[in-house]
Design brief:
This protein has 21 helices and 6 strands. It has 447 residues and is mainly α. It folds into 3 domains: 111 residues, MgtE N-terminal domain-like (MgtE N-terminal fold, Alpha Horseshoe); 104 residues, CBS-domain (Roll); 179 residues, SLC41 divalent cation transporters, integral membrane domain (Tetracycline Repressor, domain 2). Helix 3 crosses helix 5.
Length: 447
Amino acid sequence: MNPFLEDINFRDLKNNHPSDIAEVLNGLKEDERVLAFLLLPGELKSEVFTHFNYTTQEELLKKLASTDTAAMLENMAPDDRTEIFENFPDLLIKESINLLSPEEKRIALNLLGYPEKSIARLMTPYYIQAKKSWTVRQALDNIKKYGKKAETLNHVYVVDKNNVLIDDIRIGKLLMADEQQTIESLMDYQFVSLTTTMNRDEAIELFNKYDRAVMPVVSEKGVLVGIVTHDDILDEIERRDTEDMQKLGGVEALELSYTETPLLALVRKRGSVLIILFLGEMLTATAMGFFEEEIAKAVILALFIPLIISSGGNSGSQAATLIVRAMALKELELKDWWYVMRKEILSGLLLGMFLGMIGFLRIVIWQKAGLYDYGEHAWLIGLTVGLSLIGIVLWGTLSGSMIPFVLRLIGLDPATSSAPFVATLVDVTGLVIYFSIAASLLSGTLL
């Protein structure tokens, strides 16, 4: 055996969980990783392969002989195989599918034929079914015959002569029943299913609502075509939440993980948003230019610009994050916009008053203590800052909470109302609010 295989204690490694094996192999050099992977048993090879990142998977497929690739893909669960193909170049997908047996090739092409974001892409066609006229004994014999290839044995799915799903029965209920009972005697016709064209987000909500570990997938006519298990749903939830977090941070959603995304692709994803934000922030300079005379007369007002606009941006980012997450969890719908607005008006006023009081006291205390001389109109400056904070925090809160509703109304993802976009909007409008209040309060004194 090669020295490097002895170093990683390869014989013991094969007894570990597939994800642990993949982690160890990822730490090897490319040639060593290929050799170690080839030495894994057939079925274990397929399981370990699904835990590699897409870059490593593509690298291995290019290095492996066609017979090794065919055996590995043949043993792989159809849903895992489809997920892998989704991220491969078209040429590599074509070459890989052509290595499969006719039956597995048909399954792979069928799954890839569904819309990209449909739940059918995550399903497996391997499950246990039964007829309502069967006895429990017949159903158990069928499980012994076909159960090894099934993705899970949690449920037995009852279908009619046209393969239309009519019920599902928990395996525990089947095991506790008398062997001569018919399947129909155990049925209650209460089941929940997904449709092949259903969006993955809708499917996630049904999994959460009914607290299921596995759900059947049926065609528009009710024909049972596969099942989706909780592990695939958990992976999809992780991808969805990651995408939302990236959008909230002002980044276009990454197709691959951060470590796998090429540098130029990462720059493009971040740069496009930064350019838009930069153009938006240029309006801030325009707004300041509009109030140039006021700033020239009372330069001291410029000291508080960062404090004022950052407070509005922060409050807006908070509100946007809360509302987007509530929408994602289905806590809020479009019809709830007025409820949210009323709540955020009160929240914005209270938060603004709290920050405004702190800003006012800070100026007055610093003036009285001699820490800074704001001049004879210090209290007016303090009042300007305090009232401006109330107005800007209120505006920021309302903007951050309402923009997600507007985006949802026009059919866009609310997550795109990212914190940076809200902050940029409030920066520009915040200056207008600040200098408008200053012009009203300080006219005839400093202005």
